[in-house]
Amino acid sequence: MADTETLILETTKGRVVIGLRPDLAPNHVERLKTLAGQGFYDGVPFHRVIDGFMAQTGDPTGTGSGGSDLPDLKAEFNDEPHVRGTCSMARTNFPHSANSQFFLCFGDARFLDKQYTVWGKVTEGMDVVDSLNKGEPPRSPDKIVKATVGTA
C-alpha cells in the first residue's frame, strides 16, 4: 500500500519529502494531493525565496498571483508553529483565499502562527530547500520538476 500522507517534490536542486498533516488541515492536504495527482505542480517555479524566511511555490504563472481552477479554500488555521521545515499555505490578505500556493519555512516565522494554514513538515531534503536560488523572484528560479503523493 502506498503512503498517501507524503508529498514528494523532485526539484531542480534535489528531492524534498514532506509529511502531510491531515489531522491539522484535512481540506488543504486533500487539495495538495489532488493537484499533485493532476500534475499541476510539475514544472512550477519557486517564485519567491527569501533567505532566512521561506520559499514559496505553487503558482504556474511564476508571478505569485496565479492558482488552480479549483475554488479557494476556507482557512484551517491551527496551533502548529511556523518553524524550520514547516509547510504552510500562501494566501492573499483574505483569510479564506488559499488555493494552490504554499511555502516552506527556512527558520522561525512564528509571527505567521494561527494566520496561515500549516499542512505539513519537511522530513527529508531540508538541505535542498536551503539551496534554492534566492530572490523575489530569483533571477534563475528553481522548479518543482515533479510532485507526487506516495512513499518516501
From TrEMBL:
It comes from Methylobacterium bullatum. InterPro entries: Cyclophilin-like_dom_sf, Cyclophilin-type_PPIase, Cyclophilin-type_PPIase_CS, Cyclophilin-type_PPIase_dom, Cyclophilin_A-like. Pfam families: Pro_isomerase (PF00160). PPIases accelerate the folding of proteins. It catalyzes the cis-trans isomerization of proline imidic peptide bonds in oligopeptides. It comes from the Bacteria. Residues 3-152 form the PPIase cyclophilin-type domain. Keywords: Isomerase, Rotamase. One of its GO terms (biological process) is protein folding. Belongs to the cyclophilin-type PPIase family. This is Peptidyl-prolyl cis-trans isomerase. It catalyses: [protein]-peptidylproline (omega=180) = [protein]-peptidylproline (omega=0). PROSITE patterns: CSA_PPIASE_1, CSA_PPIASE_2. It is an enzyme of class 5 (isomerase). Its EC number is 5.2.1.8. GO terms for molecular function: peptidyl-prolyl cis-trans isomerase activity.
